[in-house]
Amino acid sequence: MPSRALRGTTLRRLIFRTVDNIRQSMAALKGSRLRTGLTMTIVAIGITALLGMLTMINAITSSIENDLGSQQGAAFSITSWSNSIRINNQETTVGED
Fold it and tell me: Which pTM does this prediction carry?
C-alpha cells in the first residue's frame, strides 16, 4: 500500500495535468476562434433541429390520439371474409368477391 506522501504526490500530479490540459485547450480555442464558433453554431443547430423533430412527433401523436379519442366509441370492424368495412354501423363496400 503506498504511503500518504506518495498518494499526495500522485494526486498533485493528476491535478497539475488536468489544469495544464484545460489551459492548453483554452489556448487552442482562443487561437482558432472561427473554427470554434462554427463548430458551436453547427452543434446548436443540430440540437435545435433534433428538439424540433421530437416536438413535431409528439404533436402529431397527440393530435392523432385526440382525433381517435373524440370519436366517442366509434368502432372499426374489418373482417377477412367480407369485402366491406363497417364504421359506426355504416357499411362500405371495398371491392368485389
Answer: 0.47
